[in-house]
Design a protein that fits this description.
Oligomer: single chain
Order of helices and strands: EEEEEEEEEEEHEEE
Largest sheet: 7 strands, antiparallel
Radius of gyration: 16 Å
Number of strands: 14
Structural class: mainly beta
Number of domains: 1
Mean pLDDT: 91
CATH architecture: Sandwich
Strand content: over 45%
CATH topology: Jelly Rolls
Low-confidence stretches: 1-8
Length: 205
Amino acid sequence: MLSPVNCLSQKSVVIGHFSSGNLEGWKEKIFKNKTQYQIIESSSGKILEAKSQASGSGLFRELQIDLKEMPCLAWSWKIQNVLYGLNETTKDGDDYSARVYVVFSDGPFFWNTHAINYVWSSAQPTGSAWPNAFTDRTINVSVNSGPERVGHWVSHVRDIRKDYKRLFGKMIDVVDAIAIMTDTDNSEQSATAYYGDIKFFSSCE
């Protein structure tokens, strides 16, 4: 498993410290059936495993991050398979082997939110973006696509402020939660994914 950013001499905060075997602070949200999330031991250390069988549930952590100080989100993931025959712009096709949500609050209640949803897409080209089929308050961004790199760890670093400005047309200063999700409830397929640590950094370089 690759480390996406060298955090030496940078300000950083770990949101998902899965390598320590710790899920403290993470809560579960079930939409339809339950994806199985557990910390497992791998050849490179502890990671989070997600197994979905016609299920749609996710883990989320509410924790405010000041994007003026730490605008860069870094994570790594690996999937065992992509999903097939989906139109991901529709509700029936809104399933992904791996997702990382960055959630922004619009008020005092957690459900009053909007989000950027970074996905391992089955078919949408890498770099493309489109509104989530269930809510236009979430924009999906394909950071991996199709079977290329299946079975391999892939690391990502995103400048959240820049992505937000490009997708929503304005600046944002605070992230209110991070969520991860491996889901196959709409297509009734199955998927297995693995997640490494999730961190915010002061510099993307």
